[in-house]
Design a protein that fits this description.
Elements: E1 10-17, H1 21-34, E2 39-43, H2 48-54, H3 62-69, E3 72-77, H4 87-99, E4 104-110, E5 128-134, E6 144-147, E7 155-158, H5 164-180, E8 191-196, H6 202-216, E9 223-228, H7 229-238, E10 245-248, H8 250-264, E11 271-275, E12 281-285, H9 302-314, H10 318-333, H11 347-360
Parallel strand pairs: 1-2, 1-3, 3-12, 5-10, 8-9, 8-10
Antiparallel strand pairs: 4-5, 4-11, 6-7, 11-12
Helix pairs in contact: 1-9, 1-11, 5-6, 7-8, 9-10, 10-11
The chain binds nicotinamide-adenine-dinucleotide, 3-isopropylmalic acid and manganese (II) ion.
Nicotinamide-adenine-dinucleotide binds near residues 24, 287 and 289.
Amino acid sequence: MDGKKKDQTKKVAVIPGDGIGKEVIPEAVKVIEASTVPVDLTYFDWGADRYLADKTTVPTDGFATLSREFDAILVGAFGDPRVPSNIHAKEILLGMRFKMDLYANVRPVRLLDASLCPLKGVEPKDLDFVVIRENTEGVYVDSGGIFKQGTTDEVAVQEDINTRKGVERVIRFAFEYCSHNKKADGTARKRLLMCDKSNAMTYAGGLWQRVFKEVGAAYPQIKCEHMYVGALCTQMVRDPRQFDVIVTNNMFGDIITDLAAGLQGGLGMAASGNIHPGKTSMFEPVHGSAPPLAGKNVANPMGAILTSAMMLAHLGFADAAGKIEAAVLEAVRQKKTTQDVGGSLGTNEVGDWVVQHLRKA
Ligand code: NAD
Ligand code: IPM
Ligand code: MN
């Protein structure tokens, strides 16, 4: 039976996970609650503590339950030095992306204040692009193996899987995203750049090139662009103003969004959504569990708070999402932030400030 509520109330599964995930998610939850949207939260204890206690990574039927019972999932981060293999992180995080088929990882890159960007002369209007990362294929598929392990003849194979269906649907998603989303200043998104390494990885790159051209033909209003991933990295730090929407494969998407997070003020500022239109989607900050920061009340909760805004917008609460984004923007302008972005507040105090600001507004 579908356990999702039929009224306006949305059911959200909350999985704080490990490390700073357990500190930033409570701040995001405070903010959701202060928004007074009809959202019903259910907590899940998936993560390193649970794994170390009873060896469970994902309980039987865990993903099916999430899909059946919930409208969205809010996740912190996974990764704990007590689990050197990181097996729980792989099974939970990549499990959700792969088994729930959340094929489009949407990672907005937006500068909220010039002081946060390490580049000279870059203003908020100059940095407002979105990376759409293929999220279910590529080298993340875990296809390959090790041969003659531990010998001098050892061979490690990690295959890069690109299917016609997978490439086509994420590229189509990106064209649709471009067609239906605006920049923060209200102007239309007009350009989609496909990023690959087709000069060296000719089979996979060739498929991406052909599909991009074919799908793009149906979107004459969107300008199609292309860059090799190396050139894109250079351009991103030389002149990030030129980017609008970028679509790329799983691994390049991972790397370029860490670089892009650096331009936004660091990993603590970056939000993301793992989307399959029409299915239960998952929202998480881009950062990891940052073990050295855990338990110190120093982690920046803005990435998690902006992630909760993305989730609320996805659930149909665009107004509440806009107010949260405005409150975060104001906090950044007034330096009511953690130290990594120039403030002097703790994780908790930043969440409290955003909540107070929302209440006043
Ligand atoms: P990380 O994102 O945890 O940390 C990288 C750097 O960014 C560190 O210097 C950290 O202090 C800083 N940072 C990250 N988030 C921050 C925040 N909110 N506020 C202030 N500073 C912040 O990445 P890592 O160190 O490469 O990985 C640590 C663990 O997290 C590993 O186990 C890794 O596999 C895992 N990880 C998980 C996810 C996820 O669950 N989505 C993402 C990335 C890494
Ligand atoms: C991310 C993370 C993950 C990824 C890791 C933890 C497997 O870096 O969400 O960006 O590479 O996708
Ligand atoms: Mn990453």
